[in-house]
């Protein structure tokens, strides 16, 4: 308790002497230590949050292993044949369009 009271007394004395050259340095050191402490708390908090997020994701991934396999989709041969026929039709249309000459487009400005 005496240490805490003595600390506050010294801080008040230093603040009272803040306009003297001898009083500026201790206040600057106090300010610097407070800033470093704040940064240390922020870094520790960020690390704690990151580690807890990684652990949470790892637990989710570990518990989410999918052991149930989905049934294979049923493939109807008639549907597959119709799809192949459509692709062949499109291929033949493409080949006929690529071999025919491009029709002349009239100039719209005339």
Per-chain topology:
Layout: H1 2-16, H2 21-63, H3 77-99
Helix pairs in contact: 1-2
Verbal overview:
The protein is 74% helix and 0% strand. The protein has 110 residues and is mostly helical.
Average pLDDT number: 84
**What general form does the structure show?**
elongated
The secondary structure category is: mainly alpha
Which residue ranges are poorly predicted, with pLDDT under 50 across at least 5 consecutive positions? none
**Alpha-carbon Rg, integer:** 39 Å
Taking the sheet with the most strands, its summary is: none
Task: Tell me the quaternary state.
Answer: single chain
Percent range for helical residues?
A: over 70%
| Total number of beta strands | 0
Q: Strand portion, in percent?
A: under 5%
Span of the ends, CA to CA: 101 Å
Number of helices: 3
In N-to-C order, the SSE pattern is HHH
Brief descriptors of the model:
0% strand; mainly alpha; 110 residues
Summary of the model, kept short:
74% of the residues lie in helices and 0% in strands. By secondary structure, it is mainly α.
């Amino acid at each position: 308790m005496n240490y805490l009271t003595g600390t506050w007394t010294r801080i008040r004395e230093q603040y009272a002497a803040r306009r003297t050259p001898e009083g500026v340095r201790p206040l600057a050191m106090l300010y610097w230590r407070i800033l470093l402490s704040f940064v240390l708390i922020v870094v520790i908090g960020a690390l704690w949050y990151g580690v807890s997020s990684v652990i949470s994701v790892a637990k989710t991934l570990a518990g989410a292993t999918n052991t149930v396999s989905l049934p294979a989709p049923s493939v109807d041969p008639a549907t597959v044949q119709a799809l192949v026929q459509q692709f062949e039709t499109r291929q033949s249309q493409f080949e006929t369009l690529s071999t025919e000459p491009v029709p002349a487009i009239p100039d719209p400005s005339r």
